[in-house]
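Here is one chain, start to finish.
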Amino acid sequence: MWSLGCILAEMLLGQPLFPGTSTINQVERIISAIDPPSASDLESIDAAYGSSLLSRPPTRPRKPLAEILRGAPADAVDLVTRLLVLNPHKRLTAGEALAHPYVAKYWRNSREPVFGGTVVPILCDHVQLTAAEYRDKLYQIIRDEGRSASLTNTSHRHQRPR
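Its structure:
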């Protein structure tokens, strides 16, 4: 949902939202634009190094999203602001985002069901991997899921209705 907020903001701006010159610089830009995180927000990130970065006072002047997105429709700014919330438990869900006034007119609730569960990433954010290790893990996950689906489909195929 965070990525969706960034993409929407970049579409509205016509340029990158947080163009950092380094990881630290990008985090500083983010922190200066969103509401300051609370202690529980920092705990929700589940990454000690990331939390220490985010708990520092901003080194750059505060420039809220509404100011960055000046000129964009007010409901679009509201949607971006509700998506770019540090604590993932406080961000809009996909269903809530689809029901937001900025996009609700395009959504056909009866034809586009919302996934009713929680998506839990298999790879933890606090584990640092090389690009090759990350790629290999993702391919392994895809292969494992493909095997599971194949086994499920095969077992259903061999069962005959009575």
